Amino acid sequence: MDPETPLKIPNSRSPVAASQRWPQNLAHRTPFNPKKIASGEDYTSRLASSRGKGSELLIYWYIGTRHGGGGRESVLRAASRWGPASPFTPYEEASFEHTPAPDHAAFLLPCPLLPSPLSRPPSHTLEQPLPLRKLDMAATGRKRGWGSSASEPDEEPREATARRLGVWPLDQHNQRLLDLVRPFSWSDPPPLEQYDLLVLGAGAGGLVSAKQSARRGASVAFISEHLAGGDCLNVGCVPSKALLRSARALREVRRAADFGVRFPGGTDAKIEIDFAAVMERMRRLRADIAPADSHESTAATGAHVFQGRGRFVSHNKVKVNGTELCFKKAIIATGGRAAVPPLEGLDRIPYLTNETIFNLTSLPPRMVVLGSGAVGLEMAQCFAVFGSKVIVISRSSRLLPRSSERASAALQAALERDGVKFIFHATAKEVFLTKQGGADGFPIIHVEYTHGEALTKIESRIECDALLVAVGRAPNVEDVGLENAGIAYSNETGITVNSLLTTTNPNVYAVGDCVAGAPRLTHMSGEMAKVAVQNALFGDSWSLNYHHVPRCIYTEPELALVGMDEKDVAESGKEVRFHESDLAHNDRVILDGDSAEGGIVSILTEEDGTILGATIFATRAGEMVNEVTLAMQGKLSVEALARLVHAYPTVGEGVMQAALGFVRSRWARMN
Questions:
Q1: 448-502, pLDDT tens digit by residue?
Q2: Residue-wise pLDDT tens digits, 536-581
Q3: Could you please report the per-residue DSSP string of 421-459?
């Protein structure tokens, strides 16, 4: 065949010379002009593998067109025959898949090639786009997914694997989740000789690192061992907020009469929760969100996805599944896990953490929560609203001892109204079983603890059916081979980094919960990833100011904070001013029927109006705090918040009202 003979590309409107289609040893992906690709004028491709001489090849094409400004990405995968004796003809086309894409680009990517002779495989429908990896066309359907009952002789049964991964029950929603974030059968791609960037870890920090780098032209190796999406998607932000929404709905239904809503059964009708349905809804919504974090979506950016445990074997190499991957730069994003205290008997009882509580299918009648941080308080209130009798054991003298006493008291009162009980100045000493799990699945657990001031401590015991351990987070830094790469770390605190997020290995960066001293928040991990990518690949010197990172406890009402808190102020010795507004007088709060719970906006400033921090206790405090965060990051005075026109009536006006306190203190007055 004449190498200059024009050949048609699927879906193109103009031919491309064959000579343009036989390049040798070129980059693994090539950006195209979005306008030209739409008209078929720019389909010159570069292949990652050279063609076999005299043989026919089966090629998997990936065609993606990304549109910026919040648009969509159209992904087409097609398999085509291509060889000296055959023109480039469609072999099998897949369906379109749409995923968000933030930047302008268009790509025509060759996937790995399969040798011939080839016979046409059975037709099948692709519900998700195929990954950038070698494919066995006969094994790409659902029959190799989590929904199949069949396993290969050397495979672990699916149910056992799901339990080991901490995802249960293995219903249709969890099968769909696992198909996306931890495929049962995944073939790693052939590795490149060297990657521009290697990303170890598949949580928020790892996903942002890998996807952004690949979209910006880097060759990326992405290693995911457990569940892509990390804690946030699987056992954190996403499932917890689904449960909290159900609790809010139940709370609203119980108050329906206050809004003039009557039910056929009358106001005395008992409103109950269908806990199994609540959990099923959570699993369904979690699976709905999962495609954004899936292996497929990461591979669609051009990154090579490897599923397995990665370990550093040298300063510039990581081994995964027996294959060594060489890198120029690397980002560690191994995340964290629930910290487990050295509590006598804890290893002998079936306790819960954030990693297992979302597997419950029955509502525990009684729950004890160890810890009064965000996880403990959110789940305590949630389960109390559902109907569990909940007791929180806290070592501190009050909730959130570093924060405003007024906000702390308001939060405690809100949870107590929903039935949560608190034991402060308390320390658990021992736990043990008096009954194994029965027909309802719950054991009887005894918790022995001491409480009270140092000189008057009292020993007590309480009984529960479920024990939730929520005493903080621990970094995932063990068994990663950090020593082999010259990376300093501590098992207790995490990996040591400088202000640029560089570790003690100058070519390795770290982001997220595995970093010592970093706020352990999903949005913090994502922001750290942006900084690490910019510094690692583009030679910049970006840094982060942890004081400009908002944080929120998603109870009802929510408690959001940014910047300095009262404890920080006391420790700094600075002269500061507090500007507050009481949301009990906010018109929207009154109209929504939330005035009984009140609400607070407190903004902390220097004498000249420089904003140092804020505390907000309100129904949507997490939305309101972003305004203050932007002002702090933009170095705006509190006066700017006061003079910003806010929509009426909104709870957000509370920020303006608090800021007006500063303006009023400086008003000119008439004699």
A1: 999 887 667 789 999 999 999 999 999 999 999 999 999 999 999 999 999 999 9
A2: 999 999 999 999 999 999 999 999 999 998 888 888 888 899 999 9
A3: EEE-SEEEEEEEEEE---TTS--EEEEEEEES-GGG-EE
Contact assessment for residue 474 and residue 481, using Cβ atoms and an 8 Å cutoff: no
pLDDT at 228: 97
Residue with tokens 């000189």: 455
Q: Which of 255, 335, 285 is nearest to 526 (CA)?
A: 335
Structure tokens at 93: 């086309």
Structure-block tokens of residue 219: 């060759």
Query: At 561, is the secondary structure helix, strand, or coil?
Result: strand
Q: Where are the alpha helices (DSSP H) in 290-361?
A: 295-300
CB 601 within 8 A of CB 580: yes
The whole-angstrom separation of Cα 402 and Cα 76 is 53
Place of tokens 């969509």: 72
CA distances from 300 to 92, 142, 220 (A): 19, 20, 12
325 CB neighbour count, 10 Å cutoff = 24
Rounded to the nearest angstrom, the gap between the alpha carbon of residue 248 and the centroid of all alpha carbons in its chain is 22
- Looking at the DSSP bridge assignments, the partners of residue 33 are none
How is 225-267 classified by DSSP, letter by letter? SS-TTHHHHHHSHHHHHHHHHHHHHHHHHHTGGGGT---TT-T
Using alpha carbons, select from 558, 628, 642, 562 the residue that is nearest to residue 599: 558
Indicate the residue type of 30.
T
Instruction: Write out pLDDT tens, residues 301-350.
Output: 999 999 999 999 999 999 999 999 999 999 999 999 999 999 999 999 99
Helix axes 374-386, 237-254, angle to 10 degrees: 40
Distance of CA 531 to the CA centre of its chain: 17
Q: CA nearest 566: which of 609, 606, 614, 608?
A: 614
Name the β-bridge partners of 80: 59, 90
- The verdict on whether omega for the bond into residue 131 sits within 30 degrees of 0, i.e. cis, is no
Euclidean distance between CA atoms 394 and 138, whole angstroms: 56
Q: CA-CA distances (angstroms) from residue 414 to 313, 420, 487, 618? A: 52, 9, 45, 11
Q: Report the DSSP beta bridge partners of residue 217.
A: none
What are the contacts of 590-596 at 24+ separation with CB within 8 A? Answer: 591/649, 592/619, 593/255, 593/258, 593/259, 594/557, 594/619
- Among the listed residues 659, 670, 501, 488, the one whose alpha carbon sits nearest the alpha carbon of residue 581: 659
Residue the block writes with tokens 């309101």: 624
Pick from 280, 185, 181: nearest CA to 233: 181
Q: What is the largest CA-CA distance in the chain?
A: 99
For residue 429, the tally of other CB atoms under 10 A from its CB is 15
Residues sharing a CB contact under 8 Å with residue 571, sequence separation 6 or more, in sequence order: none
Length of the chain: 671
Task: In whole angstroms, give the CA distance from residue 639 to residue 654.
Answer: 14
Burial class of residue 8 in the structure, from the number of CB atoms within 10 Å of its CB (0-12 exposed, 13-18 middle, 19+ buried) = middle
* Residue 187 amino acid letter: S
E strands, 572-658, are 577-582, 600-605, 611-618
Q: For residues 325 and 322, what is the distance between their CA atoms, to the nearest angstrom?
A: 10
Instruction: Tell me the C-alpha to C-alpha distance, in Å, between residue 251 and each of 382, 385, 539.
Output: 10, 7, 52
Q: How far apart are CA 247 and CA 201, in angstroms?
A: 33
Distance CA 518, CA 514 (A): 8
Structure tokens, 137:
């066309």
HSE-CB at 586 with a 13 A cutoff on CA atoms is 33
In sign, the C-alpha dihedral spanning 144, 147, 151, 154 is positive
Give the integer Cα–Cα distance in Å for 342 and 347: 9
